[in-house]
Amino acid sequence: MSDHYQTLGVPRDASADEIKKAYRKIARELHPDVNPDPEVQEKFKEVTASYEVLSDPQKRQQYDMGGNGFSGFGGGFGPGGFSDIMDAFFGGGGTRGPRPRMRQGQDALIRVEVDLHEACFGTERDISVESAVVCTKCQGSGCQDGASPEMCQICKGRGETQHIQKSFIGQVMTSRPCSTCGGYGSVIKNPCRECSGDGRVRARQNINVKIPAGVESGNRIQMAGRGEVGAGGGPAGDLYVEIVQAEHPTLLRDGNTLHIAIEVSFVSATLGSSVKIETLDGPEEIQIKPGTQGGSTITVKGKGMTRLHSNHRGDLIVHVEVTTPHKLKKDEEELLRKFAEMRGEKPGEVQIKGHEQGFFAKFREAFGR
Length: 369
Prior knowledge:
Helices cover 24% and strands 27% of the residues. The protein is α+β, with helices and mostly antiparallel strands.
């Protein structure tokens, strides 16, 4: 690898101004617009590469410490390297060519709300989407009466025009997009009256969406080629259907697990009973075991949500709360007092539980303490 200081002919302690002046002097002699010889152009690239390193304090420091100065690009002309210097000093590089009229269309996004049952078992939904579609009048050409775009007479189909401008090395020829054709290299003399030459129009279309089982809010279904048609009748982008799951009145979702809360009387909890609850599959009978305590749970296997892209289902967790009557009739109160007396219970007695029992045990289990 050649020494950048030798390439520019400056000492290693040269200032930024000295490096810039040296580069300008050499560039006047070697620039491709002044001397098109291939060997000279290679020399010009080498000089420009040296200037790119030494004009940047960070790259220069890296080079002085033994690096090549081209961080991340292995010593070659990386993005923003040689071409950026060419643009900064000479107003643009080589030929770009005409821009294509046909371009890729944009993606589209629409949100669809589903209920919990639809999210669990999947469904189909017909949606109406307004987007850009190919103009049927001109079939995407943008021209009226079946015509085609004609070559631009200003740029002769190149899509750019050349301009001479003055710089520190003299007159330099640069290229710019043609202002007559907009850089396309062709012009539409008689634009389609339906699409005004764009090759597409906005229209509403109905699309059938298959929503798989197990979706949840935030999931997106990609429908390739159902998005916006590109300018000039270009290929369409994709349509993304984002799922929004509505809340269920009694069931709460947590991933693939469902939760439901029920209340039972203290008699049912004490003696045990059979109760029916509503699930996504319909009524389900569950057993309340004798002595069930408030805050306990019952797991119903396989009655939760379907796992996405799977036939397996999660569980349904039933949270049991025990209700205590607010008011008792006199005879009811007497029966309860007699019941307590039979059990050896006295009004006002409490049992203090240790840290490993009751509330504290549940607290430690829940919070990992």
